[in-house]
Predict the 3D structure of the following.
Amino acid sequence: MRSVCKGLTPLAAVLTAACGNWSNEDVAFVEALPTSEHVHVALPNSAAQAAGAAPSSALTAACPAPGASQVWGWAQPAGDGLNALVDGMLVFVDYVRALTPTSRTSSGRTWGPFDDQNHPGKEEEVQMTRSVNADGLPEYSYVFGARVKGSGDPWTSILDGQFTGATARSGQGTFTLHFGALRTLGLDDHPLTDPTGDLSAQYDRAQDPITIGLDVGVNGSVAQFDYDYDGYANGNGSFSYKFVDANGDEFVVTASFDAAGEGKADVSVTLASLPNTAFSFSECWDANACVTNVQDKYAGSLWAPDGISHLCAGGVCPSGPCPNL
């Protein structure tokens, strides 16, 4: 094996501590594994501004009525929650990056068995294989298995996935973390907030826009939903997310935004008091997250005088500009 200390890409920089034990082929396998940056939702600052805009805040005071966009503010905790889940998923991957492969073949790598440093009495193994598809691109498959140390039991998959491309920063892949398996093995460190089912991710960084999909099962901090994110090179993007408020009302939002942070959203609302009926409205906001335009057909009705959005005081909705997205 020759050293690959020189010329390591940022993704493989964590391998520098093991230089001398890694080959270029080892690095190729490891670079096919996902990192947080590849599957993080990235929102403009206006989402964070709106998320922190309490009624008495300086932002709301600076916004003309009806104030800052609450809908856009919900995107920030949704994105933060998804990113935290992804980071938790990839702890296993990050650990393997610091280990030299235990065995090698021309089409595969194995790491382990090795002790789980955070869960005494448990051991893990990673199997990774590579092939070439009809377009000549490398395809990787990987399985992270775990079991009780010394049990001789078959390995239980806790994380598995596939990837196509030269490196994870410029290809496409999928992976799934099995929270049920983690709980059964005693490896889940956040059982109150982690999903009770699988958490699956799909990402494609081979095109513009990059796309990320996260399918979340029942979860304590992020609503069960199939989240979708698109991010363009020019800073534009879109994000579909779900928010459940303190009343139990559910809001499904598809928001589009530009690099400056202005945007618009289509919102579907299911009230806890009317679980079988869906309502809808749309709204726009400027780069300061201030609401500029609302389309709400329920405004002025007897049962919702301010509209289902609560943004149309006395039945009159803001009619200002919307970004051309």
In short: DSSP finds six helices and 14 strands in the chain. The chain has one domain: 32-315.
